[in-house]
Specification:
Layout: E1 13-18, H1 22-33, E2 38-44, H2 50-53, E3 61-65, H3 72-83, E4 88-93, H4 98-107, E5 111-114, H5 119-130, H6 138-151, H7 158-163, H8 167-178, H9 182-189, H10 193-207, H11 212-224
Helix pairs in contact: 3-4, 4-6, 6-11, 8-10, 8-11, 9-10, 10-11
């Protein structure tokens, strides 16, 4: 008789909560702490104090109040992106205006969640972004993509931009445009998560953007007008 395999255990996701409402952040922290794979490492009411409460600790996911005064949430997110901070930001908001979502995405946010969504939905988003995924409310996704495209400086010729990509980058780009997340890309191409992360970073650098959503927004019309669309190649596991 074979030995039973040990049950899989999710790695703990460390979360920082930044929200100006004390009751909201305390209630949210209590609920997240009830999940075995989540740990709230700190909470604060302002983006200014966030680095201080994290001294000596790290956060995999930051839940950030999009309505912080003086647009400090966007500024904080942009500064993290500039520094190369690996924390993934989930913006929490009472609304979901496409213009605000675009500003957050361009600053480097990984997700936008309305505060009136269910806690189960937020838990799914937290786990998803911790694995490298992006989340935008489906109702706003079309408008967000249109705004991202309109926002971009498209002076570079489409063929030149695509020609600058390696074969593997094109494989990953093809799957991104299909809607695949990082985990699915790794599985379909038989690549390691770290390899996929490296290629995604390279794509963002070449497209001159800070998020995979912006990559998709720029790549989709280029791929549709190009003969580059093809079935991606599989690799030996790496």
């Amino acid at each position: 008789m074979g030995t039973p395999s040990a049950p899989s255990v999710r790695p703990v996701i460390h979360v920082l909560i930044v929200d100006q409402r004390l009751t909201f952040r305390d209630a949210l922290a209590t609920r997240l702490q009830a999940e075995p794979d989540l740990a709230v490492v700190a909470k604060t009411d302002s983006a200014e104090f966030a680095p201080r409460v994290l001294v000596g600790r790290t956060a995999d996911v930051i839940l950030l109040d999009a309505e912080l005064p003086n647009d400090s949430a966007i500024g904080f997110c942009a500064e993290m992106t500039r520094r190369g901070d690996q924390s993934r930001v989930v913006m929490l908001s009472a609304s979901s205006r496409p213009e605000r979502i675009v500003a957050a995405v361009r600053a480097g946010a990984a997700a936008w969640v309305r505060k009136d969504e269910s806690i189960d939905h937020l838990l799914c988003v937290i786990r998803g972004v911790a694995s490298g995924d992006t989340w935008i409310p489906p109702r706003e996704l079309g408008a967000v993509l249109r705004l991202l495209i309109e926002d971009q400086d498209n002076r570079r010729d489409s063929d030149d931009l695509l020609a600058s990509l390696t074969g593997r980058e094109l494989d990953i780009l093809f799957l991104l445009v299909e809607g695949a997340g990082r985990k699915e890309i790794a599985e379909r191409l038989r690549l390691s998560a770290n390899t996929v992360r490296t290629h995604l970073h390279s794509l963002m650098v070449k497209f001159g953007v800070h998020s995979t959503l912006e990559v998709v927004a720029l790549a989709r019309p280029r791929l549709e007008a190009s003969s580059q669309i093809r079935e991606p190649r599989k690799s030996a596991p790496s």
